[in-house]
Amino acid sequence: MGKEKKGDLGGKELEEVVRGLPWEGVKELLSNGVCHRCIFRLFGLQGRVYTCCPASLSSLFPTATTEPQLCTLCLGILQFTHSNLQTSNLPLLIAQTVKQHSFHFHSFSLELSIPPIILDNDNSLRSYMKTKYGSQPWFQHFRCLSTKDALKFSLIHPLENLLECKSTMGSFRIRLTYTHPKPSKEDHTSHSTKRTKTGESSMVGEKSLSSLPENDSSDCCNFLLEKENEPCHFTCFCYRTPFYFGGRYLKYSRNVSQTRWIIDDERMGEASVEEIIGGNILQACQGDSFKFHAAGREDIDVRMLGPGRPFLVEVQNARRIPSELSVKEIETTINNIENKLVRVKNLKLVGSDGWNLMREGEAEKQKQYAALVWISRPLKDEDFQCVSSLKDLKVLQRTPVRVLHRRSPLEREKIIHWMKIETIAGSSQYFLLHLCTQAGTYIKEFVHGDLGRTHPSIGSIMGCRAEILQLDVTDIKMECFQT
Ligand SMILES: [Zn+2]
Predict the structure, then answer these.
(1) Could you give the dihedral angle defined by the CA atoms of residues 73, 76, 77 and 82, in that order, rounded to the nearest 10 degrees?
(2) Of the listed 149, 216, 299, 301, which one is catalytic?
(3) Distance from the CA of 35 to the center of ligand 1, in angstroms?
(4) Cα(95) to centroid of ligand 1, in Å?
(5) In this structure, are 76 and 218 located in the same domain?
(6) How far apart are alpha carbons 446 and 391 in whole angstroms?
(7) What is the DSSP letter of 143?
(8) Within 10 Å of residue 174's Cβ, how many Cβ atoms?
(9) Are 255 and 269 in contact (CB under 8 A)?
(10) How far is the CA of 163 from the centre of ligand 1 (A)?
(11) Which of 10, 66, 251, 470 has the CA that lies 20 to 30 A from 72?
(12) Which residues are paired to 396 by β-bridges?
């Protein structure tokens, strides 16, 4: 930062800014061990003045007093002095750390966490200065910009140059955490609790400062007496906020589970939808991990056909965010996997509200199925009419025997919206039953009756024994992710 960069304040302008400060106040602050940048923020200065190099600043301040080794207010934060690290060029060090993490990004946002003791220091100083200089005209300009905001002014512009992109509120975050071993004076008061909960107030509000007791002698004296020798500890790390892929999946296998399914170290089925889709997305984004969430589920032996089932994949800490084109490439990669167990459609990046959309959609959806059914007698002509004439049929289902070990015993009412029989050439006891039902209906049980636990059932309607051999989901009607 020794060289004057475009955009930095010129020597003349800087001189004007510094010379314009009330000298009585500046001298008092310097003699109390307050650093140059803190002096700027105490007088409410903003912008580029914080990025000026310390050497050029020192010459502008009174010669009798030099900048303290460790600022009594910011405890080194604005001097780039830390207990674990000292540097004259913090932006460069941050930029180097960021580059090591190999994130791809087009903007960054800076997150700062500063210990509460810094705000205590500001409050003590303000109280001290008010007592001593409150009647001076220049004291009206004594308004604290928070250390956090001053730090942003000191770092953002140089970081934008070093990282060659703008600082905006995006998914890529650089987090700087400052901690100090000394606890806050107000750690036990409600004021302080509130502040730490909301993650430090960004601006030291005029209100909170002026509401301090007028003549708090302990505060006035404390400011002068308490010299802290320990700078803050500094850490820097970067991360990306989660982002989401949405789409629909099709499952062509009766031996693939929706999610990874392991019982006693043994995998059930040959693969899972979750791993095939999530794994490919994760690899393309170079993320740390992913979460897979689908709107409902089908049994491992049920195929998912038609327009497919909506799903979301949440990727944690992705190093790269794929372009629209590379999202298409991920879809193609998944769809070209040789075994063709699973396919995806309409894969796209969606906002984080995708979760809510899907939950809302789940509540209202209808599902269509095709079931391969066997009955204990040959099909009769009147069966077709009998079955298809039933509209919005109410069915009572007690929790199926096959899931009783993990679901509580309940009786639920479900609706079968419509049904249709499709014959299979050359077969009189096998047929395809197409049906549209309310979400959550147990289809297998609706066919065979589950020992009377589901009523009515295809068996009871047709007056014979009915068995289900295969089941496919053929459509899911939902509000979101329309095809
Ligand atoms: Zn300072």
Answers:
(1) -150
(2) 299
(3) 4
(4) 23
(5) yes
(6) 15
(7) B
(8) 24
(9) yes
(10) 26
(11) 10
(12) 413, 455
Are 311 and 371 contained in the same domain?
A: no
| pLDDT in the model for residue 193 | 40
* Residue 401's pLDDT band (cuts 50, 70, 90): very high
Residue 462 lies in a domain: yes
Distance 240 CA to ligand 1 centre (A): 31
Into how many domains does the chain fold? 3
Q: Is 5 within the bounds of a domain?
A: no
Q: Tell me the chain's radius of gyration from C-alpha atoms.
A: 34
Of 208, 240, 272, at which residue does a domain stop? 240
- Rounded-to-integer distance, Cα 240 and Cα 365, Å: 33
Range of the domain at 211: 11-240
Give yes or no: residues 50 and 67 share one domain: yes
Of 207, 240, 273, the last residue of a domain is 240
**Token pair for residue 372?**
């391969």
Q: Which of 65, 187, 54 is nearest to 119 (CA)?
A: 187
Closest of 370, 371, 372, 369 to residue 430, by C-alpha: 372
Residue 308 lies in a domain: yes
Residue 345 contacts residue 308 (beta carbons within 8 Å): yes
Q: Ligand 1 centre and the CA of 170: distance in Å?
A: 29
293, 396: one domain? no
Contact (CB, 8 A) for 357 and 424: no
Q: Is 472 a catalytic residue?
A: no
Please answer whether residues 234 and 174 qualify as being in contact, where contact means their C-beta atoms are separated by less than 8 angstroms: no
| Residue 34 alpha carbon to ligand 1 centre in Å | 5
Note whether 61 and 163 are same-domain residues.
yes
Q: List the CATH number of the domain containing 456.
A: 3.30.70.3190
Please state whether beta strands 256-257 and 342-350 pair in parallel, antiparallel, or not at all (unpaired): unpaired
Q: Do the beta carbons of residue 307 and residue 248 sit within 8 Å?
A: yes
| pLDDT tens track for 269-290 | 889 999 999 999 999 999 999 9
For residue range 301-318, what is the model confidence (pLDDT) as tens digits?
Answer: 999 999 899 899 999 999
